[in-house]
Specification:
By secondary structure, this protein is an alpha/beta fold. The chain has 16 helices and 18 strands. It has helices at about 30-55, 75-85, 105-110, 130-140, 160-170, 190-205, 225-230, 240-250, 255-265, 285-305, 315, 325-330, 360-375, 470-480, 495-505, 515-535; strands spanning about 20-25, 55-60, 95, 115-120, 150, 180, 210-215, 235-240, 270, 305-310, 385-395, 395-405, 420, 445-455, 455-465, 485-490, 510-515, 535-540. About 50% of the residues are buried.
Length: about 550
């Protein structure tokens, strides 16, 4: 693949008149989210504009505030195309993000833009601007569009200002990526290497099917993996319609849904119920979610799926409550039993049905690999993704807030009795629905991310320790982000804050627990060997023992 330009175009240094930087802001597709987040975006753009002015540059916003909509975001692909018609193709361009954004709103314009591109986000957990930045930079990486990225609370700190000055001077920002190294030759006699290679060959020989409900509807271009990349791994797609999921939900009886609730109640799971459908979690909402859980398992059985992904937001958000409670149940080994329609068989008995949230197909590949490898090693195969949301120092080490928007397997929290369900935020989830939330238990984790770069599949893989922070610090972090959502206090081994942000090629990171540090090191080696045998390009990140 070729890039729209091969080298960064040097920017004109200001003389007497300020030189111009053009600015765009991609937003959500949901009006409620754009309205809620607009004041934060305004403040962030003011901070970026002021930083540019101090360096002698003028920022020109390329699309106005829309009085009718009540915000100034690019909120559709069509609007993005129209906005880019008025931006000089060789001009320096900043994409400013203080919120979650749908990358396809601006991807068409960025693909053909020939000037230097800088994506910036505010270092804050209040709204997921950092998550939006990571998705957009990953999408640009997949699209082979050269770009740079920076992040800051208000663009007054020395690190961010220095990076901004470098971009203005050269058209690029240089980050420290010394934590990343290619996989060295492995000792083929080590048991973990033998296991990984054998499982890779088994996957390619026997093949696997991932069920995809409505691909790409959350604008995550980076999360769509072409069949030509997946099929050589032995992975094939079954393309499914979310309308079929809703239809199957209608066939599930109230009694079957009630049995799921009784199963969870018996295990000590807590529902934070209220009575107001618009703002609180209700019995009717979770009944619908239990029907979705049963329906998803039955459809998966119909097609012989090895993993399934539900793309909840656009479409389903206007029809049924959130998919998250169903997703969390699917990913856990111990889960409410689901029987075939005639009652003769328990489906996927004694095992999780790996679910890849938001139909992120990088997660799908990783979940399949993790499930098979962790089972073979005798570890709990429950795996999930998290957003890389935000983080701060705590007692001398940087502790990330990994926080996915709704569900984790209960075993990650230490069990159903340590898990709970809260209503999803109305600005994202108008029909409500509950989460499967909790605080991830302390322990040793292997993290990874499969992504597309230079037209090939790559995987970054590393180690993390999950900390058990005091309850008040956990609550502070939840209140600083989204208190309804499951949280993991992650300390990455040998990787700094800015190193992860500069390198990571997704808004999501995949995590799986191991019994102890030695087991995690062995599992990482086996996973690296498995990916390597599949032909995926493996990168070791941070302090990794192999």
């Amino acid at each position: 693949m070729t890039s729209p330009y091969t080298l960064p175009v040097p920017l004109r240094r200001p003389d007497t008149e300020p030189a111009t930087v053009y600015l765009v802001a991609s937003g959500d597709l949901r009006p409620s989210a754009n309205l809620r987040c607009w004041p934060t975006q305004q403040q962030f753009e003011a901070d970026v504009t002021a930083a540019l002015a101090r360096l002698g540059w003028r920022a020109v916003r390329t699309h106005p505030f829309d009085e009718a909509k009540g915000h100034g975001f690019i909120d559709s692909q069509r609007l993005g195309i129209e906005v880019f018609k008025n931006i000089p193709s060789d001009a320096p361009l900043i994409v400013a993000e203080a919120v979650w954004q749908y990358s396809h709103h601006v991807l068409a314009g960025l693909r053909t833009h020939r000037g230097p591109i800088l994506v910036v986000a505010n270092w804050s957990g209040a709204f997921p601007g950092l998550v939006g930045l990571l998705n957009l930079t990953a999408s640009l990486t997949k699209a082979d569009v050269l770009h740079s990225a920076l992040w800051s609370e208000d663009f007054t700190d020395e690190w961010a200002v220095s990076g901004l000055q470098e971009w203005l001077d050269t058209g690029t920002v240089t980050h420290d990526l010394s934590h990343v190294r290619d996989l060295p030759p492995l000792d083929e006699h080590r048991p973990e290497v033998l296991l990984g290679a054998a499982l890779a060959r088994q996957l390619q020989d026997e093949k696997a099917i991932i069920g995809v409900f409505d691909e790409g509807c959350m604008g995550m271009y980076n999360a769509i993996f072409d069949d030509e990349l997946l099929n050589p791994l032995g992975i094939f797609k079954e393309r499914l319609s979310q309308s079929a999921l809703v239809a199957e939900m209608a066939r599930v009886s109230d009694e079957e849904a009630a049995a799921v609730k009784e199963w969870l109640d018996a295990r000590g799971f807590t529902f934070h119920f209220g009575t107001d459908e618009a703002t609180e979690l209700t019995e009717a909402q979770v009944t619908s979610q239990f029907k979705m859980y049963i329906a998803a398992v039955r459809i998966s059985d119909d097609y012989g799926l090895d993993a399934v992904g539900i793309q909840y937001q656009q479409g389903l958000k206007d029809v049924v409550p959130a998919s998250d409670l169903a997703e969390g149940l699917l990913n856990n080994v111990d889960r409410p039993p689901v029987r075939s329609r005639d009652g003769s068989r328990e489906l996927y008995a004694g095992a999780p049905l790996p679910h890849f949230n938001e139909v992120d197909e990088g997660v799908a590949v990783d979940a399949l690999v993790t499930n098979r490898l962790w089972n073979a090693m005798g570890f709990d195969p429950a795996t999930t993704l998290h957003d890389i949301r935000w983080g701060e120092e705590y007692e001398g080490e940087f502790v990330w807030v990994f926080e996915i928007s709704g569900s984790v397997p209960a075993s990650h929290n230490g069990g159903y009795d340590k898990s709970y369900s809260m209503r999803q935020p109305p600005m994202f989830f108008p029909l409500g629905g509950g989460t499967l939330s909790g605080v991830s238990k302390p322990g040793e984790v292997v993290w990874s991310r499969v992504f597309i770069m230079d037209g090939d599949l790559h995987v970054d893989i590393g180690r993390s320790t999950v900390r058990g922070l005091p309850a008040d610090e956990t609550q502070r972090r939840l209140d600083a982000t989204d208190r309804q959502w499951p949280i993991m206090h992650a300390v990455l081994h040998g990787i700094g804050r800015d190193q992860l942000m500069a390198r990571h090629k997704a808004n999501h990171v995949q995590v799986a627990y191991c019994p102890d540090a030695d087991a995690a090191d062995r599992a990482l080696l086996a996973k690296a060997a498995l990916f390597d045998e599949l032909g995926v390009i493996v990168h070791l990140c941070g302090d990794v023992k192999i």
